[in-house]
Amino acid sequence: MPSYVCKYCHQSKQSLKGLRSHLAQKKSCRDAFRRRFSAIIQATSSITQGQREADQFEDDPDSQLDVDEPAPFDPPNLHSHNPPPTDNEPPPNTTSHSRRASVEDVEDEEPGGLPKRAWVTDFPSPAGTALREGETAFAKLQREKEEAGGNLWLPFASKDEWELARWLTTAGVSQSAIDDFLKLPITRDRTHPSFHNKRTFFQKIDTLPQGPAWSCESWEVTGDELNEKGEPIVETVELWKRNTVDCIQELIGNPAFKDNMQYAPEKLYAEEECKTRIFDETWTGEWWWDKQKVFPAGVTIAPVILSSDKTQLSQFSGDKAAWPPLIEAGNQGVEMVCADGCVRRVHPILAAYIADHPEQCLVACCKENCCPKCTVPPDRRGEVVYSVMRDPREIEQLLEEKWKGESPADFKAYGLRLIDPFWKDLPHCNIFACITPDLLHQLHKGVFKDHIVSWASACMEGGEAEIDRRFKVMTTHPDLRHFRKGISLVSQWTGTEYKNMEKVFLGVLTGGSNPAVLRAVRAVLDFIYYAHFEAHSSDSLAKLEAAWNSFHAEKSIFVDLDIRDDFDIAKVHSALHYGQSIRQLGTADGYNTEASERLHIDFAKRAYRSSNKKAYTQQMTTWLSRQEAVRRFDAFLRWAEPQPLVSEIPQTEQDSQHDEQPTSLARYSVAKDPGFGATKVKTLVEKFGCANFVRNLEDHLRRFSSSQPLPLVAQNIHDRTSFDVYKRMHVRLPAIRQISRTPIKDTIRATPSVPAKPLRKAIPAHFDTVLAREFPSPVDPSGHNQDNPLHGLCVARVRAIFRLPEEYGPASKHPVAYMEWFTPFHTVAPDTGMFKISWSTRMHRRRTSIIPVTQIERSCHLIPHFGREVNLQWSSGDILDQCSTFYVNPYLRHHDFVLLRHAVAGTVT
Fold it and tell me: In terms of DSSP H, where are the helices of 26-63?
């Protein structure tokens, strides 16, 4: 396969299309290409000279890029942040260009409605300019190793020894266990590592390249508690810290992040006319664009994201020891070698502060019954009131007056607390705009679990007991936790439990709640799911804000039913700021406290467990430094030697799968060896429920026969005829910019029940429901319809997945599935907005057929229509057979929400 190499950054691409896409998306290469194109155009000003230059150009690899038409690499607003030309380069082309991108810039639209590649508008003046070439830490380390003999693995003897050292460091093995392992005869005599105990092992680890150093500052703090003598207790506290600018340099200069770095702001649009704005990462938001305007041309801004814990913050919020490097760098800039090997003048500016509500209020110097972002009165937080945002200079002035003993009127009106803010000297910092949405504490735990669940439960006929019964009999799905005992007895809730409850809560309430309650709950869930988008458009942000307005329009039902007196709740009010925060700083997923809490578990708690619990903080910093050193060295090796460092573990027979390449967009995979080999038709009928198997199979084979007689082997199918049957299949859900940049694996099960045996519990049957096409799409092979993404799709239950022998002819190309069909997507429940379907019948029997698995698009989840109270005879295992009417669940996964709620809005009536 030919390799296409970008001559500007030397990255290799497997196709010309890949190289064109690379040049269209990578800023530095795009600019270099424009300068080269400008030189060629200028050189062809005369016919004679033009012919000579054209002859030279034919031999240039860039000639494959259709330079006659530069538009494919020419996004909107070509006045881009070009680096200054060198002596050997012509100046940038200043000819006026169209601000619209070529249609070649954007490929097909994704199922979520956004283009696979957005139209780009560059910042109108130079930004993120490279001053000169530099040497990254990885490049320097590689050069040093080559000069020392070429062993990349030093200080370890070999690749195998390094991989052993990496595992011992990162696998959570205790120091004593490492010592015991290295002293085992099998390790000492056969492996022969160059380290023989934990002391020599950690000496090796400590010679690896290190990151920013830790330092400690201690001082005495006088508390508000008294000792036995009646004197205030004095405690010595320690602040362990790193130089913030060194940390930024470490991150921005790591070549492992090269393809994910952005050095200048851009605006993204969904169409050529640049009407629909797209927001995802910070560099697409208004904050960076606006901040870039106040700096000189060519400057690089490094948006800084901070996250804090309340306890640490309350002790050190007034200390300034950690901030001078960041203050100086933000004002004057610091030359840094960036991940692409270029030196830039970088100004680190605080852009976002991640914290839950108590920490947010502490940072904002306000009381916890106030909004940390705006000046809304506490007793109006339950209204749709867009109050004036807090102003940093005004708040600083009020705090300063209060410190002097004065009593400014607005100090109390703004709900302020007398705290010396750490942020007052940080350049270009508006701390109140920096406070970001907190999906975990504000939405999942706060608005949903603490409020909506309790309010809606109180409105439910039958109360918590009825809700528990509905959770117990809920239909199952691989991506859904089954609350077998209901939810009232769950003692410890985590983010995972909140999210799994959200997936079915609206369906649980149907039939037993006031319609206004359903509409209020639907609005909250829609808002939560929109808030989770990893990419937003102007359209989806409008829907996010419309969902919250819908909640406010319906919330009075809780007052009417004597559930609430008011809605003056901090977390309820915080939702009003989500839209503006996303427009300013990018999507909320990048600022979720779940990430920092996960890091706290992974590092702070593991670091503490690795200590001897005495003077543990210093030991924790040592442990962290070693973990970072190993991960940094591992990243270096992957950069220097791109091949996988660990051999792929051979798959077990159970796990091994082969991928098929069907004509449908939905790619599938099944196990190499079927789970139920040589399964007789009689078993498929009796155990799998394929009641009309023989007739459906004959009909399926006739569709492939093109009016020709069926193969002989297929002309006499009987009870003893056998087929290889699979337990499950996997479908790859397409990448959707709002959800994931990579395809998602979707599991579809078709397994009968297994009775209990001694010491083994019974296994229930799993026959999953899917979205599928009963007939191949006649127009679009991908099945994607931009006007109505559900066009041609119908819900069905998969009773069996099996493969036809090759003797059956063309029908054996792909595995097939026995399907039980539901009615089409014609009815939408007005209060829940969910599609309502029922079993499709023919001659008073369920309508069934056999289709190739290539016509299965994805799994789906059905919620039973419970009515006023759940039927006590129903169980989770048989509810699909016992119930006749269902709702198609749009909240199972965010992927389903995009398809069944966001993308179909306005397309189905």
Answer: 27-43, 47-58
